[in-house]
Amino acid sequence: MGIKKEVEGPQESRLMQTDEENGRFRAVSDAKPKRKHRFLQRVLAVSLLAGLFGGLLTACREESAAPETHAAQEQGLRRTSSIHREAAADEDKDSSVKPAAVSTKASGVYQAAGARGVKESALIPYGWHKLKQPNGAEARVQGDMNRDGVPDLAIVIERDAEEGESPPRSLLLAFGRGGETFSLSVIAEHTVLSQDEGGVWGDPFHGLTIERGTVVIRHYGGSNDRWYRTDRFRYQEKDWKLIGITTGSFFTGTQTEQTADEADYNLVTGDYSIKKTDDKGRRHEQKGNQGKRELTKIEEFDIEKRIGQTLYQD
């Protein structure tokens, strides 16, 4: 067995143990404190790793819950979906995009009526622009559409595209909030025909107006056989509804737009008027009532399916 003895040092007393073979001393009192120090380091490291793991787990849980949160925040907003999905994708690709202009994550633009307004430029989704009307002006009009005395906004927007392409168009409607700010009500697809859908005539978009609180979209196209159509949308019962249609057609060799065969429908009352011109140039009008029907919501409307209709159909 080795011999243990206590050696007095200048500042401390250390227990030394001699080796039987060579009689040298080695310190043994420091061994336990070192092991204790290493143990504390390990405890600290484990604690740090546990905290880091817990933070990552919390972040994952928040991320997985985010879609449900976002969906709940967007309740009450009437909108079509594809523009928003494309806008959100563009936001991910380009971090310079204004959040209020593209996000579907309740960032401030895709909001229900009553929310705080934003500037007009922030309403346009990233990758889209205001359409030009036939006279060169922007397809943008203002008027009171919800009868609150504050000017509201209607814009036809078109997706950016290369020259020669015919990109889709949509109708953007926003309510005025004062101070030249607006809150988005709806971006409705399938309400405006694309540039190449007017036949030989060319671009069929023929104008956007607000008349007595009603949004009016006009189309015109064809070749020798011309056609035109007017659709009227009104905000009522907290939604946008199709309330009126006017359709007409004529042959340019024998008729003009003033003598065209025309059908006009008031979808709120059910009243209709059908006008025709006979071979002798005499104008005839037939009036009637087709009964009230459930009005079509703007997001259910598809202009491409309705071109050529002479009578209102669901």
Helices, by number, come to: 4
Rg calc: 37 Å
Quick one: how many beta strands? 16
Approximately what portion of the residues adopt beta-strand conformation? Answer: 35-45%
In angstroms, what separates the terminal alpha carbons? 106 Å
Q: Please, could you describe this protein's structure?
A:
This protein is an alpha+beta fold. Among the domains are: 4-69; 190-314, no CATH class. Helices cover 20% and strands 35% of the residues. It has helices at residues 31-73, 82-93, 99-102, 303-306, and strands spanning 4-8, 13-18, 25-27, 118-119, 128-130, 140-143, 152-159, 169-178, 181-189, 205-211, 214-222, 225-236, 239-251, 261-266, 271-277, 283-289. The strands form three sheets. Strands 10-11-12-13-14-15-16 form a seven-stranded antiparallel beta sheet, with no helix packed on it. Strands 4, 5, 6, 7, 8 and 9 form a six-stranded antiparallel beta sheet that branches. A hairpin with an 8-residue loop joins strand 6 and strand 7 (152-159).
Q: How are the elements arranged and paired?
A:
Layout: E1 4-8, E2 13-18, E3 25-27, H1 31-73, H2 82-93, H3 99-102, E4 118-119, E5 128-130, E6 140-143, E7 152-159, E8 169-178, E9 181-189, E10 205-211, E11 214-222, E12 225-236, E13 239-251, E14 261-266, E15 271-277, E16 283-289, H4 303-306
Antiparallel strand pairs: 1-2, 2-3, 4-9, 5-7, 6-7, 7-8, 8-9, 10-11, 11-12, 12-13, 13-14, 14-15, 15-16
